[in-house]
């Protein structure tokens, strides 16, 4: 990349990068509605600087996928626009544009290229989120911990950060690298305390994935044995801490509902996933709305502003739909608001980390980080809105910037 005169000093860029990354990875789980604005401010500065020096990071393959996704969302607007509400998906996903700017800041400061720099931030973020969750439940007695956030959002963010910490385990041979296993452990604490089933499913998927990647990457028999021991210990901790928790009550209640249901339909129970009548009827109604909207306009969708009114029209007896802002599923949301174009945009955003895997064979942290983002956001997005919700979107952009940095860095 060329670096022209008039750029900010290296010290100033280093400070901006540090503040931005500490906020985005260290405090996104505990202060998301402050951290996301700090990251966006830092990302804008980094993006402006990258444009000024004509950095080739702006045309990284992952960045190009993000540009294409936002372009597809923009192309649907002439066909679905009814009010300013229809602009929200495009605007809400726009923070992903900051990823190349963040990457430019990280590459400018060699300290962020060291193996422990970003993983330690992620570890701090996961541990602090888990500890604050424990503090909240002990001091308030709440059944669903959120640490100032929606419980399912808190659990999802903590899960992603916790597993991103594992990139420090596979990127070096230091004896103390095993400390990064605390990342997923404290993420599990947050998931249990939040009583959220979607993040629990995501945690399990990421745990299985991380186990395979770590064992294959390190290629040591003792690693496999240690991994199995950790899984056993984690399962025991989960059973002890979650046995009487709300999350277990919700899981067993859902299983009982599935076993008892089967044939109901009409206004009482949505047609899709009718087997989850009981406590999940509203969620099934939202999935059905996504399908109905897609069927009515399969190419461009019906627009964000028309999505929830359709849900309320289809299921007028579901009072909870009157207060919800989206369909609580990325697949349902993007299918409804943008049709095939929306689903294509969602796929481009979700799989953009994979475009950074050019050097993954030499950099296992890059492979693990990319899989954590793709699988984590993919599974979490089945039962919750991720892209378009500001903290989650900013966190994805920060993680993507980390991957772009690893791809472009000469060493890990």
From TrEMBL:
What Gene Ontology molecular-function terms does this entry list? ligase activity
Q: Name one Pfam family in it.
A: Wzy_C
Which Gene Ontology cellular component terms are annotated? membrane
Membrane topology, from the record = Multi-pass membrane protein
The subcellular localization recorded is: Membrane
Give the UniProt keywords, A-Z.
Answer: Ligase, Membrane, Transmembrane, Transmembrane helix
Q: Fetch the PANTHER family from UniProt.
A: LIPOPOLYSACCHARIDE BIOSYNTHESIS PROTEIN PA4999-RELATED, TEICHURONIC ACID BIOSYNTHESIS PROTEIN TUAE
Query: What is the protein name given in its UniProt record?
Result: O-Antigen ligase
What organism is the protein native to? Answer: Devosia equisanguinis
């Amino acid at each position: 990349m060329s670096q022209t005169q008039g750029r900010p000093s290296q010290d100033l860029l280093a400070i901006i990068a540090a503040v931005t990354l500490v906020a985005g990875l260290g405090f996104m789980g505990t202060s998301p509605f402050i951290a996301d604005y700090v990251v966006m401010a830092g990302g804008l500065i980094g993006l402006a600087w990258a444009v000024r020096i004509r950095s080739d990071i702006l045309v990284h393959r992952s960045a190009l996928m993000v540009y294409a996704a936002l372009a597809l969302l923009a192309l649907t607007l002439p066909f679905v626009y009814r009010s300013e509400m229809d602009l929200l998906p495009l605007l809400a996903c726009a923070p992903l544009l900051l990823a190349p700017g963040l990457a430019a800041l990280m590459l400018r400061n060699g300290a962020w290229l060291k193996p422990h720099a970003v993983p330690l931030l992620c570890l701090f973020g996961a541990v602090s989120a888990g500890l604050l969750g424990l503090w909240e439940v002990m001091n308030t007695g709440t059944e669903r911990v959120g640490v100032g956030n929606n419980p399912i959002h808190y659990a999802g963010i903590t899960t992603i950060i916790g597993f991103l910490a594992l990139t420090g385990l596979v990127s070096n041979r230091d004896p103390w690298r095993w400390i990064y296993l605390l990342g997923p452990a404290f993420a599990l604490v947050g998931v249990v305390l939040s009583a959220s089933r979607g993040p629990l499913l995501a945690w399990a998927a990421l745990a299985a994935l991380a186990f395979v990647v770590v064992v294959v990457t390190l290629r040591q028999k003792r690693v496999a044995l240690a991994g199995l021991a950790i899984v056993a210990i984690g399962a025991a901790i989960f059973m002890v801490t979650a046995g009487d928790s709300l999350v277990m009550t919700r899981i067993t209640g859902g299983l009982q509902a599935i076993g008892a249901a089967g044939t109901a339909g009409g206004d009482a129970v949505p047609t899709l996933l009718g087997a989850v009548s009981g406590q999940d009827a509203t969620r099934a109604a939202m999935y059905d709305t996504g399908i109905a909207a897609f069927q009515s306009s399969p190419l461009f969708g019906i627009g964000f502003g028309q999505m929830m009114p359709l849900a309320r029209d289809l299921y007028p007896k579901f009072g909870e739909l009157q207060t919800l802002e989206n369909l609580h599923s990325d697949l349902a949301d993007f299918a409804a608001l943008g049709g095939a174009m929306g689903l294509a945009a969602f796929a481009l955003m979700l799989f953009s980390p994979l475009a950074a895997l050019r050097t993954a064979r030499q950099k296992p942290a890059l492979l693990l980080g990319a899989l954590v983002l793709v699988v984590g956001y993919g599974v979490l997005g089945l039962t919750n809105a991720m892209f378009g919700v500001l903290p989650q979107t900013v966190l994805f952009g920060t993680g993507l910037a980390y991957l772009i940095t690893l791809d472009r860095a000469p060493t890990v």
